[in-house]
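Risk register update: the risk of archive-format incompatibility is retired. Evidence:
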Amino acid sequence: MRSACSTVLLDALGVLRARGQDVLPFLQGQLSNDLTLLSPDRSLLAGYHNPQGRVIALLHLLQLAPDDLLLLLPPATAAGVERSDEAAAGDLLAALPASPDATARIAAAFAVRLAQEPARWLLVSPLSQPAPPGTRPAAETRIWQRLAVAAGEPQVYAATSEEFVAQMLNLDCLGAIAFDKGCYTGQEIIARAHYRGRVKRRLQRFVMRDARQLRPADAGTLSDGRAFEVVEAVVLADGRCEFLAVAPLAIGESAPGTAAATSIAGERFDAQALPLPYPLPS
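Archived output:
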């Protein structure tokens, strides 16, 4: 049985606080998810888009009070945000929320469960307060990054802001889009892609076969001619890179577990396609 909770300090994640009697109506008209579903016991993932439906930023929203929200997103504008990479035991385990998107108050901290398996939580606490009891010292950032990549969870950075329409990042698969809510910025384009046609480019997961590194916004070409752009990447202990990239869903594309040759800035290398933990719309 695991006896403690490992944490990863995410310096690249910022925390914004939005307060006021109009905060919910205002954000309801800006974000892709339905904020009427937000509560102190439930967090939401939502996209903030430009009028062309392209994702400017991804936000995790937590509700402190009816008119008081926390918005978590890059770039880092505050410190003190930690994410756990494995389950805890004892009092901390009992206090952590059990289902994805559920939130719980643990002393001065807020805990949000982000995934079912492997169990992962986002912990947000004031700088002036100690970490919840039962946590271990911070682990390597790449531990969290690899779990996020394996879970097919995109992130939007300055280099990739406004590059992708919502469905290209699989936000519909991740429950970050409410198609039955009222209008919001970019809603017309996002709804049209949902109701009128198949999205031809989607977030997919790969791992290098040799020691290579990639960063968000790096671009390349698969051996079958499909272009891709990196969304998130993590360097593994052996020097290889596991990454999420947006690429066309072409007929005859490599199935998970098969090899595909790619090219970055004239270089050629092999990448293995890996499955996502959720299905993509057919």
